[in-house]
Every structure is written in C-alpha cells, then in structure tokens.
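Quick start: what a row looks like.
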Amino acid sequence: MSASPAHPTACLTLADGTLFYGHGFGATGQTTAELCFNTAMTGYQEIMTDPSYAGQIVTFTFPHIGNTGTTPEDDETGDPVAAGMVVKWMPTQSSNWRAVSELSDWLSARGRIAIGGIDTRRLTRAIRQQGAPHVALAHDPEGNFDVEALVAAARGFSGLEGLDLAKDVTCAQSYRWDEMRWAWPDGYPKQDAPKHKVVAVDYGAKRNILRCLASAGCDVTVLPASATYEDVMAHNPDGVFLSNGPGDPAATGEYAVPMIRDILNKSDLPVFGICLGHQMLALALGAKTIKMNHGHHGANHPVKEHETGKVEITSMNHGFAVDSQSLPDGVVETHVSLFDGSNCGIRMADRPVFSVQHHPEASPGPQDSFYLFERFAASMDAA
C-alpha cells in the first residue's frame, strides 16, 4: 500500500491488491479498466479523447497536467474515451488564452474519474515490470472505500485481449469531412478544392487524422467500422484509409479483414493505415499481431524508416503490435521502433499499399511524419 495522504478521496486498486490513495477530481463513482502510462508532456485533452484509449485508464508521467485547461478545439472525438486519468499533482488553475474550462470541470461534465497525489513514478515502474495491470478507480468525496470490492472489481475486468472495441467508438453512420489542420489566426480552414476522393474506415478515428487527409487534398467520406467492400466501392474512391482504434486487432479483424482483403484482391486502389488500421492491414496480408507487455504511449518515440535511414520523433498509442516475424513474402517492413525494435510500418512490395503503427497526424512538436499523408496523396496521383 502506498503512503496515504490526509483525507484521501480517491483510491486506485490494482488486481494484485496494491492500493494507491489520493485526491479525486472530475466525476465521482467507480470504473474498471486496463492501466497504461503516457510519457507526453502536452496533449492531455487529446489523449483523453483519443478513441484508441477505450477500456484504459491513463497514468500521465509528466506532473503538470491540467495547467492549460481545456478547449473544444482540442477534442479528438465528441467525448473522452479513456476511462479515467492518474496524475502526480492535482491540477492547478489553468493559465492559457485558449482555455474554456478547467480540466476537473471538463472531466466531471463527461463522467470521467481522475486521481491526483499519486507516486506516478512508482506506478509506472510497476506497469513496466509487471505489464499493464487491471485496475479499479474510485472517487468518493467522503473517502469511503470498500477495498475488498475494489480488488474484486479489478480482478473481474476481462482485459483487452479478445475484445473488439472498435464497434463501440466507430461512427453510427457515414459522413463527409472537409476540415483541415489548424492554422493561425483563423483556426480550422475548409478544404474547398480537393483532388482525391478517399473513403476513411472509422475504427475510432481521431479528428486530426481526418484533418490531415483533408489538408493533403482529400475529399473524405467516413464509413463505420462494419463497412463492407460494396459500401466502400459505392463511393468510387481514389484511395482507402484505415483509421486508428482501440481493442484487440484480431477481434476487430473478424469483420474488418475480409473487407480489406476484398479491396486488395478486387481493386488496385492505394491503401493507407494508421495504428489499428496498420494492424488490420497486416492481418489482411497474412501477418499476426501480439499483445505487448505495457505498450507504447507517448509523444517522444523515435522511429526509423529503413529505406531512407531517417529517424522520426513520433506520437504512439498502442498495446498490440504487428509481429514482424510473421510478415509474408511481398510485404516489406518499412519502420521500426528504436526503443525496442518492434514493427512500426509495412508496405506491399509491388503496390501503393502501406501503413504505420505511429500517429503521423499527432505532431507532438515535430511534424516529422506528415509526409505519409503526402505519400498517400501522391500514390493516388500516380494511380
């Protein structure tokens, strides 16, 4: 048990019985999830609203969380998707000209629980050594916690393996997207002269990915994760994009892989995938995916592109990875993580079909990876 602060109002319980007491903020109540950690120094609002974090509570290793407040412009989807957040220091009053509301109020209005005053370094070490644990997080202003029930709840969480979460975060129906990347001083401009028609399959798409596609000259139509080959081709696209998303890729692949294989077998369209979309493409090509010990979550991950030797500083968020040893003939590994050598990109040797594990739209300071959207556009030009 970690040292208890005076009058704790929140409790984080790991499935092995380890307890962390702290101060709650945001919503009250209780939630269960897998616990991960994120090393980014900025972007907590984008992280909490990234659909890829469904089923997870995020521990932020950077201590200054909440100091820039929140603004609707930074939401990656309509509401937070991450189940909760863990921080070292309680958020202070925000100090930023873009702030519309305080982090605690923003979380409370959206039903998300948070805990502060936690030794996040100790917690992060535990995640790295033991793997991403199953946890229960409770916030009670009176400080009344049924520890046995919390431990039981953590142990009862099913985990993410075998879990299809894309169906929970995908769009309910198709829609068009024409908003481009944010630009000073006018915010998000509209794409009014697109060159390419792109169908984006939404497994949990971040808004900034769609903005990057629009900025690369694409007229984007977003379809639900359950879209069939016929649904995609009905829009007569010049290219197909496979989005990021949460959960076990093998589970989502039960319905997504047949559609992607039809695209590959029945058309010569360029295909581009990111994160879960990368894993879906790999599965469709005959590779396998594996659950990682604690995953990659952060904005400072170095990724090397084999063919150019260039190293990119990237944003990542994934707990599963493509097994590079399972890549079939005709599929080339293009990118690798310089942290652990895990696969971060593939392409077909003879066709404009490629994908990456990292998030080229996230721009965690550098914009090293935006060229991938331009590469996708160029492949549609060539086709």
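That is the whole record. The longest strand covers residues 289-305. DSSP finds ten helices and 17 strands in the chain.
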